[in-house]
């Protein structure tokens, strides 16, 4: 399999912007009309999703140890769309037709390599879906509370109707009847509780159909659907190291869940949480964080604002503020938030002597359909 040639071929389609996804879906829906029902009515927020996911797979096609678990998760997760084994050949045929259409140097060798690669991908995903067949494809959950914290942020309390198992720090895909077939990922802000409640933090994004619906149109009594949990942001179960948690924006949610896990399950450890926002009025969860700090003397919460000149809180990017309070070289560290903030904070911590293997991170990107292979989440 000529992997460099496959990557060069894929790059030609990816470079066309919307043209390649449009061609792919047109080919798929015309050749296999039955697949149209798997997708939302409006494809405006869907067209680039497949090629984004394929780009992630192509980047790792020569590292099967890393790629196979990702494909297995995708196979399990795709059950919620109604995807069955019979759909995979149709998608494969349209994919090859698209890759050929946008490459004047297409060859029989490329066709053979892509066929082999896609066959492997499909086999792994189908096998994983079959293994998960005894579990629900999704879980219905009732919205039991909905609180607007700011003009664009809401906190939802959601109760699944059946047992729903997940780990603190993982992400959960949500679908609402207000936006059918559009699934978006959010991180519960609590560890599993005896009453089953999940606390979901949502920020309405410009052009984000699901986040806007969840913040502005969803109410108590509405029913959401939850997909299988995914994600890798979690505490080391064998470690009792003290923790440093650094949150930017909506990255607060999974880190709050880790704090809840320490409070519920232990082991006893010191936890320092830093919360970064541009202005003080964007700190939407301050009252509950103060409650957590009051109830748990091992927890310290520090706020950082980067643009609010009149605030009495600490000023500067959250990474700067974290370093002022260091050193942190002995800590287990989790960082979650926008890409720029996460990458800057992690880079600073490594430069100041924190071993990279003790740092976990989660990037929150707007208007995404789900977690990428690098762990980006939420809309």
Mean pLDDT: 88
Number of domains: 3
Distance between the termini: 36 Å
Q: Write down the CATH class of the largest domain.
A: Mainly Alpha
Largest sheet: 6 strands, antiparallel
- CATH homologous superfamily title of the largest domain: Globins
Number of helix segments? 11
Tally the beta strands: 12
Segments where pLDDT lies below 50 for 5+ residues?
Answer: 367-379
Class by SSE composition: alpha/beta
Task: Kindly estimate the percentage of residues that lie in beta strands according to DSSP.
Answer: 15-25%
CATH architect. name of the largest domain: Orthogonal Bundle
Helicity level, as a percent range? Answer: 25-40%
Main attributes of the structure:
Rossmann fold, 6-stranded antiparallel β-sheet, 18% strand, 6-stranded parallel β-sheet, alpha/beta, 3 domains, Elongation Factor Tu (Ef-tu), domain 3, disordered C terminus
Overview of this protein structure:
- The structure is a single chain.
- The protein has a six-stranded antiparallel β-sheet. Strands 10-9-8-7-11-12 form a six-stranded parallel β-sheet, with helices on both faces.
- With 379 residues, the chain is an alpha/beta fold.
- Helix 9 links the parallel strand 8 and strand 9.
- The C terminus is likely disordered.
- The radius of gyration is 22 Å and the shape is globular.
Give a short summary of the structure.
37% of the residues lie in helices and 18% in strands. The protein has 379 residues and is α/β, with parallel strands linked by helices.
């Amino acid at each position: 399999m000529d992997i460099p040639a496959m990557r060069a071929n894929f790059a030609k389609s990816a470079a066309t912007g919307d043209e390649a996804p449009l061609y792919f879906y047109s080919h798929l829906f015309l050749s296999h009309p039955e697949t149209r029902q798997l997708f939302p009515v409006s494809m405006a927020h869907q067209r680039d999703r497949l090629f984004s996911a394929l780009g992630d797979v192509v980047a790792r096609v020569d590292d099967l140890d890393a790629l196979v678990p990702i494909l297995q998760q995708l196979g399990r997760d795709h059950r919620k769309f109604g995807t069955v084994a019979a759909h995979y050949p149709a998608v494969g045929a349209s994919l090859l037709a698209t890759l050929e259409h946008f490459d004047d140097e297409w060859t029989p060798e490329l066709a053979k390599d892509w066929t082999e690669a896609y066959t492997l991908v499909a086999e792994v995903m189908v096998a994983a879906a079959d293994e998960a067949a005894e579990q629900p494809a999704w879980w219905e959950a009732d919205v039991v509370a909905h609180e607007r914290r700011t003009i664009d942020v809401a906190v939802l309390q959601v109760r699944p109707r059946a047992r729903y198992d997940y780990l603190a720090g993982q992400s959960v895909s949500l679908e609402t009847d207000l936006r059918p077939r559009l699934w978006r990922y959010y991180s519960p802000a609590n560890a599993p509780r005896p009453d089953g409640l999940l606390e979901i933090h949502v920020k309405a994004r410009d052009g984000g159909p699901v986040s806007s619906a969840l913040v502005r149109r969803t109410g108590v009594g509405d029913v959401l659907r939850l997909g299988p949990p995914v994600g890798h942001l979690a505490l080391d179960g064998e470690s009792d190291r003290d923790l440093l948690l650094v949150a930017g924006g909506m990255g607060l949610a999974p880190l709050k869940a880790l704090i809840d896990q320490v409070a519920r399950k232990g082991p006893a450890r010191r936890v320092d949480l830093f919360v970064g926002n541009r202005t003080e009025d964007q700190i939407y969860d301050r009252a509950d964080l103060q409650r957590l700090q009051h109830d748990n003397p091992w927890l310290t919460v520090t706020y950082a604002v980067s643009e609010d000149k009149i605030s009495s809180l600490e000023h500067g990017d959250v990474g700067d503020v974290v370093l002022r309070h260091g050193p942190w070289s002995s800590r287990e560290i989790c960082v979650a938030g926008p890409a720029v903030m996460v990458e800057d904070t992690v880079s600073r911590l490594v430069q100041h002597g924190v071993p990279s293997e003790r740092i976990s991170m989660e990037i929150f990107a707007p208007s995404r359909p789900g977690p990428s292979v690098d762990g980006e989440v939420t809309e």
